[in-house]
Amino acid sequence: MITKQNVIPLLKEACPSFEPSEEINFNDKEELQHELSRVAGHLISLEYNGQLEREPDVFEAIEQLYIEGESDVKEAVTTGLFQAMHEMIIDQQISPEEIGMLLKPHSLKWWKTIDHFSENSAEQ
């Protein structure tokens, strides 16, 4: 099982252009989510500049987090990474489908859940 301590190192290995914060307390849920929101910002920046497709390993890593991650890892990826990415794409004129096309099956399911939730919230 992938633990919270493995999340950022796994994403860094898959996306070498991302520079994580120097010291992260992985046991602190807020710190992990903050670091995942930094990953989200980096990925959206890459997409905005047309470079995200050059980082295919990051989508394999995200999929691995959903398949092999402990429940708190899956929750952190959904709320810390995907929710942050979804909020950022609106500002950058990037469609959810553009990101969805790059995701693998398990992570795509959760991406669509965030997208559906966001659409319903916007309608209210």
TrEMBL record:
InterPro entries in the cross-refs: DUF7674 (IPR056091)
Domain of life of the source: Bacteria
UniProt xrefs under Pfam families: DUF7674
Residue ranges of every copy of the DUF7674 domain listed in the record: 9-117
Protein name, UniProt field: DUF7674 domain-containing protein
